[in-house]
Amino acid sequence: MSDAPATSDGHVTVGSTDTAPSAPAGRISRTDVAHLARLARLAVSDQELDVFAEQLDVILGAVARVSEVAAADIPPTSHAVPMTNVYRADEVQPCLPREDVLAGAPDVEDNKFRVPRILAEEV
Amino acid sequence: MTDLTRMSASEIAALVAGGEVAAVEVAQAHLDRITTIDSQVHAFLHVDTTGALEAAKAVDTARANGTVLGPLAGVPLAMKDVVVTKGLPTTAGSKILEGWHPPYDATITERIKNAGIVMLGKTNMDEFAMGSSTENSAYGPTHNPWDLSRIPGGSSGGSSAAVAAFEAPLSIGTDTGGSIRQPAAVTGIVGHKPTYGGVSRYGLIAFSSSLDQAGPFGRTVLDTALLHEVMGGYDPRDSTSINAPVPPVVAAAREGAAAGSLAGVRVGVVRELSGEGYQPGVLAAYDAAVGTLRELGAEVVEVSCPRFEYALAAYYLIAPSECSSNLARFDAVRYGLRVGDDGANSLEEVMSLTREAGFGPEVKRRIMIGTYALSSGYYEAYYGQAQKVRTLIARDFAAAFERADVLVSPSTPVVAFGIGEVVDPLTMYRNDLCTLPASLAGTPAISVPCGLSEGLPVGLQIMAPALADDRCYRVAAAYEAAAGTLTIPEVS
């Protein structure tokens, strides 16, 4: 996701809204879906843009109900069970055999994962 | 000899331990059953005939050598295909993982094997555990043994159907928002979602990491508890694993059934989990079940959890947000499908083409909802606010558990619906109305059969505070002993 327009806090910007809306509601357009799909690396079809725009609009409209709850001074919960960092002894452990891991890869070369070109320029 | 496929897990284990039946015979009986009926039920994505018979033979050999067998040694089990199994196909119901053979076992897979439990194969599921009907599997739907034209629940619908169809006495599912309890309810079996952190997540293909929890299915409360005890417990390989003993669920199941009384137990009826949107037949069965708990001596009180009303909205922001992050790992590099690698397309284009081809519509929807909810400008209003609502739901639970030892509700608002009947995503999401609060709070909850509505099973949900899973089993076992188990119709 290297080329997503990241803000200083690491989040990506979607659609035309750059500032937090007072109430999370709004129409999801084909353009919005296309942008979301690009951020999520989904090469959606033209037909899917229409279907998803309609469905995401309905779903996001429904989940926006969370804004009805007065929760300004409520701490967020990321995990239901309170946790602190867990440490373990820094000891060498066996790892998976390389051939077992590479056996599941879509393409392998020289005992490594082979990937398509990463840089934009011709190789 | 009674049909081995009709026996409970505890009965089978006793026969195997006593040398009255060979584990190989038990495994073969279930494999034969799968061969006969799974073309109609489609509970399994992969049947491991060779592995199952080898595992069973190892149990028989161990017994012959005088080894003391574990409480479920020789009992067959069906494993949800979201749990990795070394050398066996693991797809999570997705085309993107078709043909992948994991290079390691999940912790729960290891524990099953070490206990001498015989894994028959991998069960069908909604793709990446996203769904309530198993219709979102890339490999076709599973059919409910009660009525093959209906859904078996989801996302663990293959696991629930396998047990209900007598293809296995036990199975394992995962529950993120209800994916064990709802399938158990609509197939007339028992299913438990443990306290979050009570069962290791190491080797579960992640959907929503703060909610995912594996748990057991069985046809009886005791069988379910026996499997829970094998699966559960601390795992240093899962950073969210709770470092505490497994709650005494087997003892609780035995005591609950033996006592024949719930005197001294305070049962809280959750006001917000009934009424509008619930089928009258479901509510009638549920009310009768509450009446049975009262007859058993329980003190029934009504409790109110006003923020439960917002559980669905909070869940369908939190789970998709975590899913959009977790599923980023399917990048066409290290495992699974790769599409469009023609030498011209860039890595990014190959990723996008692969994910487009490999993911089904529901997975794409949730990834995009999550991407949206985590976006700058929307993050606080959606994801941040959902996390605060999550806190308030946990507080509602805490307040209710001051007045009651367990809380009860229907497990689902509706009985099993027809395959293909629900097409609208939001309508599908409402299947999780009753199960979502306990998921968000990380608290344990069980579904136990409580009668029929229009000939289809209804589930009673029993919820307990974190780490008090044994209370779910105690009350469920007492209820089961009083009400009896359902007679599941024959698939022919």
Helix content range of chain B: 25-40%
- Terminal CA distance of chain B: 21 Å
Number of helices of chain B: 16
Mean pLDDT rating of chain A = 80
- Radius of gyration of chain B, whole Å: 21 Å
Question: How large, in whole angstroms, is the Cα Rg of chain A?
Answer: 22 Å
Listing every helix as H and every strand as E from the N terminus to the C terminus, the arrangement of chain A reads: HHHEE
CATH superfamily of the domain at 4-259 and 444-483 in chain B: Amidase signature (AS) domain
Number of strands of chain A: 2
Instruction: Look at the helices and sheets of chain A and give the structural class.
Output: mainly alpha
Helix content of chain A: 25-40%
Write a structural description.
The complex is a heterodimer of chains A (123) and B (492). With 123 residues, chain A is mostly helical. Chain A has a domain at 1-72. Chain A contains three helices and two strands; from the N terminus they run αααββ. Chain A has helices at 30-39, 46-63, 98-102; strands at residues 108-109, 112-113. The longest helix of chain A is centred in the middle third of the chain and has 18 residues, at 46-63. Chain A is flat and about 50 Å long. The model of chain A is unreliable at 1-25 (pLDDT under 50). Chain B is α/β, with parallel strands linked by helices. Chain B has a domain at 4-259 and 444-483: Amidase signature (AS) domain (Amidase signature (AS) enzymes), CATH 3.90.1300.10. Helix content of chain B is 40%, strand content 13%. Chain B is built from 16 helices and eleven strands. In chain B, strands 1-3-2-4-6-5-10-11-9-7-8 form an eleven-stranded mixed β-sheet. In chain B, strand 7, helix 9 (280-295) and strand 8 (299-303) form a beta-alpha-beta unit. Chain B is globular. The model of chain B has no long low-confidence stretch (mean pLDDT 97). Chains A and B meet through helix 1 and helix 2 of A and helix 10, helix 11, helix 12, helix 13 and helix 14 of B.
